[in-house]
Structure formats: C-alpha cells, structure tokens
Fold this protein.
Amino acid sequence: MLDFRDVGANLETYREKLARRPTFDTGLLDQVKTLWEARSAAITATQDLQADKNAAGKEMQRIFKEGSNEEKAQAREQQKQLSAAIKEGEAKVNEAEAALSALMLDIPNVPHESVPDGAGEEDNQVVRSWGEKPSFDFEPKDHVDIAEGIYKQLDFERASKISGARFAVMYGQLAHLERALAQLMLDTHVVDHGYKEVSVPFVVNSAALTGTGQLPKFEDDQFKVPFSDSTDYWLIPTAEVPVTNLYQDTIVTPADGPLPHAYCAHTACFRKEAGSAGRDTRGILRQHQFFKVEMVRFVEPETSHDQLEQLVSHAERILQKLELHYRVSLLCTGDMSANAAKCYDLEVWLPGQDSYREISSCSNFEDFQARRARIRYKAEVKGKARLLHTLNGSGVAVGRCMVALIEQHQQADGRVRIPKALQPYMRGQEWLELPTAE
C-alpha cells in the first residue's frame, strides 16, 4: 500500500498520478483529505495542549513552593484535566491514522512513469517477440481435441463428478508431461538463474493475503477454508503469497546475504475466477485449480526496475527452451493489476485459438507489498531500515504451457513433438505416443 503520510502531504500529486488508472475512484482521495485534515487538526490541538501542560507544570513548581493549599489543589486539577485532554487528542490522532491505514488498502499502486496510459488490454504495447509463429499444412486442432479427443488423457466429465466445473483429471503421458514441465522450470530457475527452491504451504491466513494485496480487494476470487478456530484461512491463489510472506515482519541485514534474494516454488493455485465467466473457459486455460512455478525477488529499491527486466528474461528462457513462439507486452495503466507499479505479460501463441494468451505476468510492486507486509532491510548493520522492493513472476503457468506445447508442436497425425530440452524429463521420449487401437 501507499504511505498515507506521503499521500496526505502530497494529495494533488497523487491525485494526478492515480488518475492514470482509468478505473480508480478519486473519491477515495477525497476521503484521505478529510481524514488527513482531521489528523492534522488533532495533532495541532494535542501539541497546543502539551505546551499548555508544560507551562502549567512550571507554574505548578512555583505554587508548590509558595502557594496556598487551595492553589495547589487547583494546579493538580488543571494538570489532570490537561492530561485527560491530551490523551483524548492522541486517541483522535490514532483513530485518524488507523482509518487512513485502512483506506490505503483500497488505493492502488502508482504506475511507474514508463507504463503507457490506456483503457484496457487493447492499449498494451508489444515490446518484442521470439520465434516464428508455427505454420501448418493442415487445420490445427486445439488442446482439447488433441488431449481429450485423440489421446483420451484429459477428462473433464470425471473431474466434474468429483469436484464440479472447471476442474480436470489427467492420465498417463499428460500427467507425466505436467510433472516434467514443472521439473524443467524448477531446474532452470535454480541451476541457471540462481533461485533458491522453496516448498511452502498451500493454505495461508488473512494477514498473508493482505500483505501481498489479494485482500481486501480480491476477496471474491479467493477460496476460504472453513477451519474450526477463529482465524480465517485461504487456499493460495499463487505461490507469490506464501513466498513473499516468508519475509513478513522482517528486517533483512547483511548477515542474511547480499540482495537480491530470489526464490522459486512449484505449487497448486486455487482461484474462483469470479470475474471471468465465459472467458477462456474451454479446456484447461482457466481452471479453479492449476499448477504454477513462481519466482519472487526481494531487491534494493534502486535496482528494482533493472531486476524486473531480468525476471522477465528468466520466464522467457522457459518458453525458449520449449521452442514456443511468444511475445512480450508491457501492460498499460488500464490493464495492470492494482498492486503493480509496472508489469509485463508473456503471451504464448495458441494455434487452436488463433490468438495469443497470457502465460506469465512479471511485476514490480516497488514498496507497495513491503509496506503492507512490513518487509525492510538494512544496507549496513547499524544503518536505517528501509522498505525493500518486491517482484514476482510466473515461471511459468504449467497448464497453459502444456496447452501451448500441445498446440504448437502438434503433427498432422495427432502426435505431439517433445522439445529437446524436455526429453530428459520425459524418459527420453521424442513424441507423445498415440494410443494403440484396442
């Protein structure tokens, strides 16, 4: 979240910056103004009372030396009343600050100056692409027609009986392919890119979701777990939540090793996708449960935008290893998440849909998450603690990677070519083997 002190003191500057987000409700800044003025008035009144109390204290010393018993009693009563008034004033300051902090949870991050203005995804900027768009001398099928229709290894009907709509069961080679892709991603990020692999819980508390910005704004997209105690628990929407919160309430020091600190994790992810009915619902493009390898970086503020470019390149490397044509888009202010200061999407080409689909989002949150989760660092042992910058990116979404691989590497006879880099993880197979006739 933003610092209410900075927002309150520079309200019109923030109004101008946040106006770049087309869906931002400027009425929230009017509320900030009201609360900020109430806080300022309470601080001034309390300071005046404290000055009166200090002056009365000096007079009280004289009275206790020279004054009558009646004057001493009056002086004590005056001090008591001033103390009570000061306490009341401090309570008003605290109340205003608590309200401001709560309001900040609903105010989005300020877009970085390099982010293009725009209303939605149509205003995103394609900055580069990699590989040639595959061409076929036959009508390409989508992943459902191949995985479910030809291979019979993708099962939505049985998943629906078990769990409901937008879940899937995978068998045989397809289940193996899902596991192999995740293993390739993890090995690449750990061995080639220097990330530390971490295994994290799939269930988190409300503080963790608030720290990374999913609560309160995106509560309707989350799966709440009805545990029996008084604490709310949630299934993770992404490994970003537990991995980022590894540093919750933490001050990183030189003893913890030089920055950046980089982690990757392979987890299941759970999303209601409440706002996406009717969009990308065929097959496994948009499921309530899916697997993803996530990258999270904790970096010094001065380096964070260079670090974002590096993070994007790490996600790109996975798609390059899998020989998948993709493009990189810089998201505009109208398509970027509320938490991000800057975000790139990697969009992979899906021949079966004749369109690009997002397979990874790589974001720099600057200090937005760090302030919410209280993540700080000291460049020197005795130095002043500062907020870190946090970044995260999918490295990449496993299910969507499967979709792209099946569709881009499909053959006329229905076989699917396995890229060379993936073959060691597929027991040396060069192709997904077609089912034998029964």
Observations:
- The chain is about 40% helix and 20% strand.
- The mean pLDDT is 95.
- The radius of gyration is 28 Å.
- The longest helix spans residues 27-66.
